[in-house]
Amino acid sequence: MKIxxxxxxxxxxxxxxxxxxxxxxxDSDGNLDHDATDAEIYLSWFFLKNPVLHRVLAAAxxxxxxxxxxxxVNHILTPTYLERDLILTNGAGVHAIPIAExxxxxxxxxxxxxxxxxxxxxxxxxxxxxxxxxxxxxTLLIIGAGGIGQAIAARxxxxxxxxxxxxxxxxxxxxxxxVVGVDEWRxxxxxxxxxxVATPLTTETQNLINEEVLRSLPPHAYLxxxxxxxxxNEPALIKALTEGWIAGAALDTVVTxxxxxxxxxxxxxxxxxxxxxxGHSPKVKQRSVELFLDNFHRYHTGQPLRNVxxxxxxx
Length: 315
Prior knowledge:
Layout: E1 2-6, H1 10-13, E2 22-26, E3 41-43, H2 50-59, E4 65-67, H3 79-82, E5 87-89, H4 96-111, H5 114-122, E6 139-143, H6 147-157, E7 162-166, E8 178-180, E9 194-197, H7 211-216, E10 222-225, H8 234-243, E11 248-251, E12 271-273, H9 282-300
Parallel strand pairs: 1-2, 1-3, 3-4, 4-5, 6-7, 6-9, 7-8, 9-10, 10-11, 11-12
């Protein structure tokens, strides 16, 4: 069996595979060090670009299974990719803990007014009377109660928050007070103190958080997006923050990344921007390797694979 491995992670994968496994290494530009025409498995790595993906596909006509470490795979499901009959698995779950921790960081920073308090320290001022809030009984609406959404809920519940989640097929979930369908969540917008976007980017979720949604939130609501930039309509968000429809927002992901230096998002009031780093942790690499190796064993022994992507749904 032959596998295409990214050079960034090959040294950590190869020792754990059967001795008769053959390897083809691929660099970040899509250059292959050996013939890949009979390669059956492709492990890609983070920051995969379409030209690189398409170059590998063209060089490996016998591919049957592709594993991507990302949770979101919208950048992979190109028309060229969908022409191939490939099993695609993703890294859903490996980023859940660091992203959930980051979401609580955003929430606490807003509730405790940390930006203003840090500004006071820089100005050597001792001032009290800020509107500092607690999280007990605050309502958190999580758009997308998948693995990341559930990790967020587990941590938010420890703060005594009321948690509402959304799923395509609603079901009772631990730490959620209520889980509703893909349309019913809109009726809960007026009661949301915090709203977290944790849904995959698909044709159905693009611009999901639009002007209508933002106008339905209460003025004290705080929006957090750790999913994909295009799920939030950026012009609508800029308008909402500039005109004060909501109290603020935190974006770890935007439509155009890296965010251009002349983007109006940089100077929008009450907007906290982080450079798509909420999923970063040294343990993510370890979990990614473990997930691939477990799936390789399953593939090799004919067992069902974990995290198989429905390519039509996009996740």
